[in-house]
Structures are given as structure tokens and as C-alpha cells.
Amino acid sequence: MSGLPLSEEDLHAFADNQLPPERSQEVAAVIAREPALAGRVAEIKRQNALLRDALDPWLAETLPRKLLHASAHPRRVSLWRRLRPALAVAATLVIGVATGWYGRDEVLRREGTPVTFSRQAALTHALYAADQNRPVEVWAADEQRLVNWLSKRLNFPLRAPDLNSLGFSLVGGRLVAGNEKPGALFMYENTDKQRISLLVRRDDVPSHETAFRYAKEDGVSVFYWIDDTCGYAISGRVDKPQLLAIARVVYGQLAAFEAAPPPRP
Amino acid sequence: MADKLPDALPNPDLVAALPRLRRYARVLTGDLHRADDLVQDTLARAWEKRQLWRAGSDLRAWLFTIMHNVHVNQFSMRQREYAQTSLDADDGPAAGWEIPVRATQADRVELAEVLEQIGRLPVAQREVLILAAVEELRYEEIGDVLGVPIGTVMSRLSRARDKLRRMNADTTSSLKVVK
User: Are A225 and A121 in contact (CB under 8 A)?
Assistant: First the structure.
């Protein structure tokens, strides 16, 4: 029998089943002859079992939501998590600008993914539609100037769809954070003071085209679609059928507009 | 579909590790709420460092390592003297052990006592003991998790077990007197 006498380490390793089989057999043989050692090993094993009995019930507890959340890929959740507080206060210009930039950063990293675009649209809508005093930078009274300005900034001919047939009139528009480039936001309002917005974004790189898609982000409904390098999103706190009707009208008008573009401003 | 699916699903491997991470965090912090904060910080750190994880290696041990480091950092930042007296010291009470004993566990007085006894061990001994006895990590793995040589693992383990045995002998002898 080699390697005797037993070390303290051997006893622990034996009790914890960490010895290689051969050594384990040797140790077992020694312990069998030494009641004091056998007693110590039994004590360690008893402690181990007790510890497990005491601590194992914790494993069956319900996991808290925040930890499940933290187990998801952070890039896919961080935008929303970071912006949710901002949405709650929703409207000071400072916050608008700051979140716009965070949003932009996030969108850049996840370029072209429709889900992000819907979030961006919902966020932008929530920020500006809640602003009673200054939801837009340029009011509808200056519609031509608004359209020219935004077209110039986006470097692409824009037009504000006419939604009067649906009871929504143009409030105005503003420049917002887009993807690599700025985006344009047109805001509409009906007589019930409900607001909806159209976000237009244009990227340098074409995204996967999508058909109409619907998403609901923190109470804001969004219909969006991506057409080559252009993304469009209609957002509002209105129900899905109503928003779909609006989205169809917008889509139809934009398609007609594209088919016969006016001379560029 | 798009309006129903969560935006990002929890990673199943991480979720599977969560119960053990929570348990280890409780043993480290001795506090249910601080434990969950520690788990959350650990997960954030794990995502940041996910390139460093070698696929196929033991995710649990890797997460324990991160948790240990996060805890040590927070520890020394927050409570320098706590670290001095309790992280390594062999004696003195381990501050802040506030794990409540659940009613179901209290059915066995022994188990309630064990929980309380763990709390009286210094954090460094607690860690080794739990990783060896409960998580059944190999001693070398424990050394990796804690960033200490295996000799340190063994001496801490030995001291932790001795202490538990002595605490237990005390309670047993007092019980015998009652009989």
C-alpha cells in the first residue's frame, strides 16, 4: 500500500468523491482499519448531506422576472429598458434629444431590423405626440416649407400624406433621429385630439423588405413596412383596425406618389 | 406574432444556471435582495465577457467565477473593513447574514441550524464549502473560480468543516443535556 499515511487532504477528497479510483480504494482500506478516520469521513459526508438538504430547497423557488430579463441578450433589450423611463416622462426636449441619440446608436447596431424600426417609431411617437406645446418643429400651415425642408434633409422627395378622409389633419412635422441619416416625422391629429404619426427613414443600405407589420410597444400601436432603403411607420395609441385603415391609406398615397413623383424641390 | 413575441428570449443556458447562481449569491451576500442584485450584475458581466467563455466548458463554473469577482469588487469598494475582518479572517462574526429560515425547512430544526451556521463562517470559507459540498465542483475548479491555489482551497475547506463540526458538537451536547 503506497502513499501512506493519509493526509488531511485525502480525507476530504475521499469524502467528496474526488479521488481517482485507485487512490480511493487505498484510502478506503486504511479508513476501514481506523475508526477515528472513518468517523471523520462519516462526519464530512453527513455535513455535506445536511448542507444540501438545507440549501437545495432554494433551487425550486420561482425566478424573479428581472433575472429572466437579465438572461436575455442585452442588446436586444437594453434600448427598451433604457428608454422606458424616458417614455414615462415622455416629452421634454432634452430627454427627446438624449433618447433620440441613444436610439440612434442602438438602431445603428441593429441596422435594418424591422423590430427596431417599430420601436423607434413608437418611441418617437410617444415622445412627441405627448407634447402639447411643440409636437412639431414646423406647423402644417407651412406645409410646403415643411416638406421641402425635410426632403432636403433626408435627400429624398417626401410628401405628407393627406389623411383628412379619415378625420386626421396634419399638425406638422419634425426632423428626428433616423438610422445613419435623419428621419422625418409627420404628426396628425383628429377632432378628439388623438394623434398619430408617420415616421419616414431612409438608409444607405437596403433592408429586407417587409409587408405590413404590426407591433405594439408600450401601448403605442405601430404599422410599418420597409421598402428597399425606405422605412415607414404609422404609430398611435389607437386600436389595430383603425391604425391599419390609416396605414393602408398612407401606403396607397405613397405608392401613387412614387409612381408619379413631382419635380424635386 | 410580432406583437406577441417577447423581443428577446432569455438564454436557456443562463436560465438553467439561475437557481444555482442565486443560491451561491445568497451564500455570498447572506441577503436575499442583495443576492439577486449580485446575480443581475453577474449576468450583465457575463454578457459583456461572453467572448471569453470557451464553448463546451462548464458554464456554471464560469458564472461562479464572474460572480465571485463581481462580489469581491463590490465588497472591497463598499466595505473595506468588512473585507478585512470577514473575507479572510478565521474568526469574528460574518456580518450581514440575514437569510430567513423558511417554515418548511424549519420543520427540521437541524436544517435551520445549518443555515445559521453557514452564516457564521467567514465568506471565504463559506464559498469553498458550498462549492465543494453542495455544488460538488472539483477542488481544482474551485481554485479557478476563486483565483487561489489548491492548497488554499484545501485549508479553507478543512477549517470550514472543523468549524461546522465544533458548532454542531456544541448544539448536540446541549441537546443531550436537555434529554
Answer: no
The distance of B127 to chain A (nearest Cα, Å) reads: 13
Cα distances (Å, whole numbers) of residue A10 to A51, B62, B128, B137: 21, 26, 16, 16
Q: List chain A residues with CB under 8 Å of B132.
A: 12, 16
Nearest to B25 by CA among B81, B63, B52: B63
Cβ separation of B157 and A12 shorter than 8 Å?
yes
Alpha-carbon distance B111 to nearest alpha carbon in chain A (angstroms):
5
Same domain, A152 and A253: yes
Q: Is residue A20 part of a domain?
A: yes
Average pLDDT, rounded, for chain B: 80
Residues of chain A contacting B19 with CB distance shorter than 8 Å: 58-61, 63
Among B93, B137, B100, B103, smallest CA distance to B115 is for B100
Domain with residue A216: its CATH number is 3.30.200.100
Does A77 share its domain with A92? Answer: yes
- When CB atoms are compared, the residue of B40, B111, B161 closest to A47 is B161
Same domain, A168 and A75: yes
Residues A73, B11: C-beta atoms closer than 8 Å: yes
CB contact under 8 A, A55 and B14: no
CATH top-level class for B12-178?
mainly alpha
- Domain around A38: 9-59
Q: Count of A–B CB contacts within 8 Å?
A: 115
Could you give the ipTM of this predicted complex? 0.84
Q: What is the pLDDT of residue A180?
A: 66
Residue A158 lies in a domain: yes
- Whether A169 and A218 share a structural domain: yes
> Would you give per-residue pLDDT tens digits along chain B (179 residues)?
333 334 457 788 888 899 999 999 999 998 888 999 999 999 999 988 888 877 777 889 999 999 999 999 887 666 554 444 445 554 444 556 777 666 555 556 778 888 889 999 999 999 999 999 999 999 999 999 999 999 999 999 999 999 999 987 776 655 544 44
The answer to whether residues A136 and A41 belong to one domain is no
Closest-CA distance, B33 to chain A, in angstroms, reads 11
Q: Three-state SS for B81?
A: helix
Domain total in chain A = 2
- State how far the Cα of B127 lies from the Cα of B124, in Å rounded to an integer: 5
- Pair (A83, A111) in one structural domain: yes
How many CA atoms lie within 13 Å of B147's alpha carbon, on the beta-carbon side?
A: 8
What is the CA angle A207-A235-A238, rounded to 5? Answer: 145
